[in-house]
Amino acid sequence: MTETASGPARGSKARGSKTAGASPKGGLRAERIHTTPGVHPYDEVVWERRDVVMTNWRDGSVNFEQRGVEFPDFWSVNAANIVTSKYFRGAVGSPQRESSLRQLIDRVVKTYRAAGESNGYFASPADAEIFEHELAHALLHQVFSFNSPVWFNVGTQQPQQVSACFILSVDDSMESILDWYKEEGMIFKGGSGAGLNLSRIRSSKELLSSGGNASGPVSFMRGADASAGTIKSGGATRRAAKMVVLDVDHPDIEDFIQTKVKEEEKIRALRDAGFDMDLGGSDITSVQYQNANNSVRVNDTFMKAVENGTEFGLTARMTGDVIEKVDAKELFRKMAEAAWACADPGIQYDDTINHWHTCPESGRITASNPCSEYMHLDNSSCNLASLNLMKFLRDDEEGNQSFDAERFAKVVELVITAMDISICFADFPTEKIGETTRAFRQLGIGYANLGALLMATGHAYDSEGGRALAGAITSLMTGTAYKRSAELAGVVGPYEGYARNAEPHRRVMRQHSDANGTARRMDDLDTPVWAAATEAWQDVIRLGGKNGFRNAQASVLAPTGTIGLMMDCDTTGVEPDLALVKFKKLVGGGSMQIVNNTVPRALKRLGYQNEQVEAIVAHIAEHGNVLDAPGLRPEHYEVFDCAMGERSISAMGHVRMMAAVQPWISGAISKTVNMPENATVDEVEEIYFEAWKLGVKALAIYRDNCKVGQPLSAKKKEEARTEVSEAAPAAVEKKVVEYRPVRKRLPKGRPGITTSFTVGGAEGYMTANSYPDDGLGEVFLKMSKQGSTLAGMMDAFSIAVSVGLQYGVPLETYISKFTNMRFEPAGLTDDPDVRMAQSIVDYIFRRLALDFLPFETRSALGIHSAEERQRHLETGSYETGDEDVDVEGLAQSAPVQSEPPKAVAPAAPATSAAPKQAHNSTELVEIQLGLNADAPLCFSCGTKMRRAGSCYLCEGCGSTSGCS
Question: Domain total for the chain?
């Protein structure tokens, strides 16, 4: 898509693009980017059928299963698994269930085309068809992806919500506060996240009209936090995603800053007293304020007071009078201390945010979505889409590289057109949000794989060259997006709020253009991209002055969690690479670790020969890093710096990258600045202060191991109990009473169940007999021929288990001990309730759990029947009639970690530790580097998650800890 009916886009011929001429009817003229006339994109790829079986590695239970799904042969196992389990619609096993990527893409793309045609976007049906084919090709080839709600909802019978990011508002009235609880809950139920600013609520230091003291916003946060903790987000077992913002001049700001710090102290005290405060523990729900990200909104007046060491006034909400003066530097220090201690609060720079606001006449920007990338008017939403930057990196025959700026700009035009069309048919969770979004049409185009792109081009993430290339690409993306927005305004009109905000909108466009003009050019890669961006911004100013703009906002940098996996991206959003060695799933099962494909490309870009590349890659495969790699020059080490590992990127390196791209982002950037465990409060202050100086709109820091309640191993728990028992003096010698169990034998006649089974091709029979008053009493197992070693061991094992049961050993104890035991034979079974077993013993005790344990007990062990798993996929609940309230919702709170372990003298182990097994890239890095990644476990599949912006992402199943 390159032009409107009013004429070709300026400079399009100079870039060599084909122009299709103007249409007398009006509407957009389409241009082919990737497709061939007369050939559908689906006919240009090789399709294959696959089986998708996803298991929980902790207990071996099957989380999801769909066989015979159709994907292109170049899609990875992980991408196909996640799309099948997350995005295919229809009940599993029913004829209505989608089973091919073609069906998924058609469902979305055809809806977009139909809406575009009915709303007058296209000059002709032929242009609409080109639009459909180009959109389908780009999605099929993982060039870009819409955000998750589009894949969930578009083209289905349910409300067609396309937005993942929401901002709400609350006023100083009980009615408004209760509306906030309700609106937030509805957004959480739909699987999205919301943010809002509580600063309109009067402080606890002000009076009510009745004469009593007000509760204050921190008090009302408690109710909202409890609500968020009990609502399953999108019907899934993950926490709701929310952001709470308070202005720095609010009289309750110190209480707000301290909310999470105090709760962390509570976790420590309760844990030391013996309560179960692990993530997901039974007592963690007593902790408050854990379901939101907190941010303080600071202004330039406050930051200058910090800089100058002067006082700062806190103002009454109702009168605006200063009711208290505080030392600005001391308050800033308290913010840094709290963030150092528990990662909250983050910081948002109010004047910087509103300096880039296109619609100030319609209201200030006061808040953000949970991940801090969407910032616009209250009661609004933003739908997102992200481009895969690695798809635009070209290598010629001589080994030279270039970024395909021309094709990149055309894809941006295509995607922005589709995103704007979606607002025409989209549904919204509240009427107020719908009205604001339709009036301002906020969009959020962004990208993923920046870290991989920089490494592949031989740029260190923390380098002037890397920042220049990132800035150039970002400027070109947003400039092209606004250019297309101006072209759309010439066809279907500007957004409703444009007339009132025309001058400030054009002012912000000039600010973007001026920043582009003064940006530093570094090398042969970024200079051509800067040139294309300059041309785009010239078109923005020219066409915007003539037509206005279709969209009040064009771009953000989102976490790109699940959709990043869908596009097979190595890195998410604006993040650097996690590590140099990846964990890759293989077709047919199994996995392997591989050195990133970006590493050889980077080495070739840096001038290394094939033999040298092979030697360096072999070294990385063995050691997980480039230190002392044969033939690698030390000055090139920085190119391979990652988020984790021996050479991790500094905290200020992350901040400098954010500052390098912020001038060309309409919204902001979802990113958490990771800091090492030994970082100081002074360093946190420095980051918060320098980010303000550099023009960043918002950020948050996370110091490794600053959280308490991470899942502890059984060994650590036992050590903790030992320490407590040793610390307690034995004041009184107690008499020891010995109790002996009594065996309860089964009667001569007893009910029983005989089950035949096959595990990995090995056949067997199990007979399980019960007491008449219920309860398993004995088990008999028949395997192989009588007299064989296996048969004898199975007989002995059966007797041991049976005698234990009759002496009162609970069945669930056996199940917890013997499930997940791994040995051959293992693999597929003929039991629909237990499709995969890691051994015969694993299968036997899963079957016994299904036959003899109550639902609540085995569900806690992660064991469900096929019917229950299907019900969960359809309704979000394993249990019939289960409501959307999750009593363990607080277990899905912001990722929490334990204190650093106390230093102890090393002791020789009695036995060698069993080798760890990796289930994703994060765990692989832990094993290779001997470190502990500060991240939560996925509640869907049990693997350790990894950072994706300010959220966490599971590589195994695509689940996220925040908004989609």
Answer: 3
